[in-house]
């Protein structure tokens, strides 16, 4: 293990609130030169906020951020970068239409005589890439190289600025196993050069290979910091979850489920899923657990017909539906509410009524002519059934809160009469009360005989809603639990543990 | 992507306020139109006459007949710049079929309309099936339709024998230009289509968020094919009207029409990026542009300079529109 003093970065006593909610509460955090620190914690634990404070993207309320012995006086990204903090966020920020070299020196192009010195730029790019052991042609278009290579280019770009602290936010969440190794090798090289690395990931297998130490966060506080070798994965899970107060509202008795309506067999979607067998039954809420990038979304998309599998079959109500498109699946009764509500879910300018009925106009129209009465009735009915709060049934959906938008998007498939509901992160960006309402809605839908598949990143939600939960890890289903024996810690353990 | 969604969010308000913004825009345009009419009535002798009013409507129809379909195209986030050459081409085709090729006129008219529909549908299919930007597809049509019309005629008019049907279409019923009647009739149809049909609402949904519309089960390809087919059909219809007016098929007809249509649509408050817009706004935009054109002639403005004034007024109208939109809490971009 490398020396842990002096500190490359130090955060003392910082707090941060968003709309009255504490995202961080008096957090102390420090990382030494050449140290690789894993940052762990479930969603909403405060990891992102801490990272953003270090990167200068947020200003702390109280406390201070010190980088390389110098205090970050006015928190902004360029000052933090000057002090030596570089961040590679989960969403890559490269421009696909430019070359690797151009991307790497964006805004800081090597100039000669008022023009960009292309030769020097290529040389420097090549050097920065090869230093990390990356074999990518700096002249290639970024859009043409693989996601893993793009990830490496982002890291190389950050490294070419000679940072003191490098923050990697879930750098492997969109990569396949073989590609993960390349990122880990690069991190090892970076560590050798004395740069401190904050490594956010849920994959314990990676963390154990690469990190010296780990900091676990929970509810905006640092729970503990320890050398990685001293704790078991089990202990880390316990720290992430805390002493979970026994929740009275969790599902006690699973609903009686009928014979499967969806049968997934041998499903392969490269690089995420490697042979999934799954049954979805009417009258139950089936949860799918897994960390970011575990293939949850891909699994739902294949069932919904939005994505074609590389191999394997999907049978819906006895009809093979894989590879036949989403409208085919919809006719078989499958409805998908997408993960990204804003880009894939809603038409913001249209009213909630129209957003609701667009899944099936035939129910509110005669020969292609809409009946405003029937549209209104459908909307009002949905508003009452799902307690959607809105000034009127024709209010543009973009003006509603996230929770109400989500209910409309779910209601769309109820309007269409779908019997199989696939909900990808329906509680993301939704307030606490709306979450509770969505849980109740899903329970009652299952009771009424619908098959509900529920995907959530928040593991502790699953036993509040699900009759049965399967865990995705390493492209396979690694665990299955049935209510009332769905334990959050077991799920998390199965989701982050090294695949057997 | 994130910035895009962010902007959408910032744009959206209660429909009450959106309506206000839309009404503000339509109200403002109405006021501008009335002011323009008053100024022209005071400053010229010949403007405020009944016959000139019918003239203005007759001129407006030459844009309006294709502008309703054009509004839907733009609401869907698309563009059709091929309408001018399409009008000329189908006028020529009609004249050829009814003249040298010896088709009976009703058949020639029918084939012209079907032809316009099919060419438009093909453009929509290229857009919808292969994702070729509609600007490019219709740019290709813009060039080749005009070229084909000129090639077929050596750029000379193809006369059409006097004929009852065409005379009525290109002429007047009583004092009223038939084209104006056609325009208003189509306006009613398109208002209904845009507001009350599943197709019309699907157009708004596709323009507002094509990904969400597609995932909800709307057949986006079908919508796009119908959009351009309708636009092509209307261009062919206008081609027949224009041919009737000129008593010939003319390869140089309707030059610049596509930009008059786009101008009328955006002056009317329809967003070029799609998702928002109204037929009433476009009607006001069409009238606004027709009154300006008529007024400039009556004021004796140099005909080259008329284009300058027209250009400035269009930008000014959209600017006011945008600023008003921002004031009411909407981003007007």
Which features does this protein show?
heterodimer; A: alpha/beta; Rossmann fold; six-stranded mixed beta sheet; 17 helices; globular; B: 333 residues; mainly alpha; ABC transporter involved in vitamin B12 uptake, BtuC; two-stranded antiparallel sheet; 4 strands; 76% helix; disordered N terminus; disordered C terminus
Task: Describe the overall structure.
- The complex is a heterodimer of chains A (500) and B (333).
- Chain A has 500 residues and is of the alpha/beta class.
- Chain A has two domains: 7-241, 3-Layer(aba) Sandwich (Rossmann fold); 262-496, Rossmann fold (3-Layer(aba) Sandwich).
- Chain A contains 17 helices and 24 strands.
- In chain A, strand 11 (213-218) and strand 12 (221-227) form a beta hairpin.
- The two termini of chain A are 27 Å apart.
- Residues 1-5 of chain A have low confidence and may be disordered.
- Chain B is an all-alpha fold.
- Chain B is 76% helix and 2% strand.
- Chain B has 14 helices and four strands.
- In chain B, the strands form two sheets. A two-stranded antiparallel sheet of chain B has the order 1-4. In chain B, strands 2-3 form a two-stranded antiparallel ribbon.
- Mean pLDDT of chain B is 89; it is low at 1-17 and 329-333.
- The interface between A and B is medium-sized, with 36 and 34 residues.
Précis, in short:
Chain A folds into two domains: 7-241, P-loop containing nucleotide triphosphate hydrolases (Rossmann fold), CATH 3.40.50; 262-496, P-loop containing nucleotide triphosphate hydrolases (Rossmann fold), CATH 3.40.50.300. Helix content of chain A is 33%, strand content 25%. Chain A contains 17 helices and 24 strands.
